[in-house]
Each structure stands twice: as C-alpha cells, then as structure tokens.
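Please, structure for the following, as tokens.
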Amino acid sequence: MQQTKQPKFMKDFLVYLTTIKGKSQRTRKEYEYDLTLFFRFYKAVQEDLDIENLSTIDIGTITIEEIREMTLEDLYLFMEYCEVQRGNSAAARARKVATLKSFFKYLKGKRRLIEENPADELETPKIGRKRPIYMNLQEATQFIDGIKSNQASPRNYCMMMFFLNLGIRVTELCQLNKTSIQGRYLTVIGKGNKERTVYLNDSCMQALADYENSGKTPYKGEGEEPLFVSQKGTRFTRQTVAKIVKRINQQSGLQKERLTPHKLRHTSATMMYKAGADIRSLQHILGHSSVATTQIYTHIEDEQLQHVLENNPFNIVRER
C-alpha cells in the first residue's frame, strides 16, 4: 500500500499505541495498514469512487465530522469487502475488527472526539482453533543435523537450540542482547514489552559457549550489542532468521512443509508438554498473557489417548 497523508487523529492514535499501550512497531504498522484501508474504502463508497483503485485515494482530508457520521453498517460493509473481494481469512478480518474497535474506543474514551462508538457492537469473526504444526523428536534431530559446518554454524546451531529448548519467538531472539544473559538465566522481552526470565539448560549453555568462542563477526551497529550478530555485523531481522531456518530445512533433507521459526517454537512447547511440563509453567516459559493460548498444546493428550485406546487388548474386531 502506497504512503498516504494521514489525518491528525489517526497519527495521534498510532503514537498512543506505541508510547502508552506499549505495542510493538510491527503491531503499529498493522493497525496503520488496516485503518488506511478502511478510510480509503469508506471514501470510495461515500464518493462513488472505483474500489479497484483504493491505493490512489487520499485519506488526509478525512475530518472528525466524517468520523462522527460513521455507523455500524459502514463497518460491516467494510468487513464484507475484506471477506468477499479481498478474500481475507477469518483471522485477518478479526485483526481488522480489533483495529477498528481500538481506534474508535480511543476516539471516544481517551480523546472525547466522538459521542457514539460505532464499533461497540462490531462482532469478531469466529476463528477455528488450529492445532499447532510441529516436528517430532526424530524430525527435530534430523533438522539439527542439517546445520552445515561453516563459520556461521556455531551461531546458527545456538539460535536453533534457543528456539527448540526455550520456545522463544523469532522477534524475541532478534532483540536479545549480550546483557540479556546473566549466568544461566536469559531475560526475554516479549509482546507488549513484558519481561520474563527463562533458565538456560546445559544444551543452551554449551551452544552459547561454542558460539562465543567461534570468533564471531564483530558488531558494527549502534546501541547495545546483540547476542546474535549477522555476517554483516548487524542485528538479525525476522526475515533473515526465517531464511536460515528454511536453508537448514533443505540441507537436512527433512523438507518439512512451511517450516518457520514459529514452528520451532511449537515444537519446543509440544516437547516440553510431553515431557511433563504443567500448563502454568509452560505459560510462563512461552510468555503467553493468557493460559487459554497455552492450552492449544494439550492437543497431544488427545493423540496419546487415541494411541492408548488403539492398543487396548480388547480392541479386536471379531466376525459375528
């Protein structure tokens, strides 16, 4: 989506998201995208413009008076457009609903710019809860064996050990600094800038020592020195780490479909749960704000119960 001039109340809302609500820059960008799309769509409908050319519509002229005229029906029309013409999934539409709800709540509750909130009754599309995709122990072992021996291998091995042992998010891994390590403990900054401390087991400590002793690339950037430094001497991005995971997946011969850093997090969480971790402990390790999110890993209980029932000695089909 092209850059466009934004109305002041939209700029103020985006600043509020990061400075007061503590949202990440990534979340802010997503909210900015959703609001820009909504305002362009609204103007296209109101002014009978071509919806096929939304990117050309200027939203900088939208006034607070126009915002006050918006209704729940306008929001539903936008959601229909996202579903039918843009082909957005329920999850994508749910994010847009969250954006609109947050925006109008800000205008009414924080700024007192509107008296009626049209998003109050806007419903969130139901999202079917998916089972997490993960590697089993044999696949994970094959994946790790696929890290080819070169100058970057101690670093890449250490990063993969952090994913598989600690279940950290890729953004959390990229944000780690050398000062994040205190003895055998790692301080992780999660979503909403929430801080948590996780224990480094022997595997992580050994991988970290090997990486530190490998003559790693000096950091050439500004600010705190990252724990993991790229070949260019810079802090890693999510995209670069994803490429490393993809390359290891190919080199290992595993060729696991759509294997991403997030799938490594799922693998770690599933293995910890199978090893006996209780839900509350897992919630802390993974940095979930709600235990309901952590409970997706209880799906393996269903598989284990099915296996037990399949192996019941009385599971014999007899002819009658």
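Residues 25-46 form the longest helix (22 residues). The chain has a mean pLDDT of 90.
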